[in-house]
Amino acid sequence: MDTPGKSLTRGRVCPYSGHVTQPRQHTLVQAPIDPVDEDGVAAALVGTAVSVIATLLAWWNYAWLQQRGQDWWLWSALTATGVGVLFILYTLSRKRRRLTPSDAVEAPATEDAARQPEGSVEQ
Fold first, then answer.
1. CA 55 – CA 2 distance, rounded (Å)
2. CB atoms < 10 A from the CB of 84, how many?
3. What is the pLDDT along the chain (123 residues), one digit of tens a residue?
4. What are the distances in angstroms from CA 1 to CA 19, 39, 118?
5. What is the 3-class SS of the chain, one letter each residue?
6. CA 107 vs CA 101, 103, 104, 110, 115: distances in Å
7. Mean pLDDT of the chain, nearest integer
8. Which residues on adjacent β-strands are paired with residue 12?
9. What residue segments make up the domains of the chain, in order of their start?
10. What is the pLDDT of residues 9-29, one digit of tens each?
């Protein structure tokens, strides 16, 4: 079963011929590129803009929609616009939080300051 000169530690042994096959090479490799939008602000802006356009179109054709019993389209578009505005505010605050250095609680400078209770006056 073993072929001379081939190591069994690398690859697999074919059950029919007994030959050692070479290990497979990975064909998919991750491209070294940066993400398009780390914060989601652009996606929030585009989605909200689309819902604003849908709201304007539904408002423009509201009488036509109402005749056909489809006036819920206007309210759906208005709701999507409201949610989009909230999403924009959320993503902007998340981006602002990520870009500003966090003001962590600073450790006391000396051991005396660490032992002194809060609100007491140092003498």
1. 73
2. 19
3. 555 554 445 567 777 777 777 766 767 777 788 777 678 899 999 999 999 999 999 999 999 999 999 999 999 999 999 999 999 999 999 999 888 876 555 555 555 555 555 555 555
4. 7, 58, 80
5. CCCCCCCCCCCEECCCCCCEECCCCCCCCCCCCCCCCCCCHHHHHHHHHHHHHHHHHHHHCHHHHHHCCCCHHHHHHHHHHHHHHHHHHHHHHHHHHHHCCCCCCCCCCCHHHHHCCCCCCCC
6. 17, 12, 9, 9, 12
7. 79
8. 21
9. 41-99
10. 556 777 777 777 776 676 777
Structure tokens at 10: 């690398």
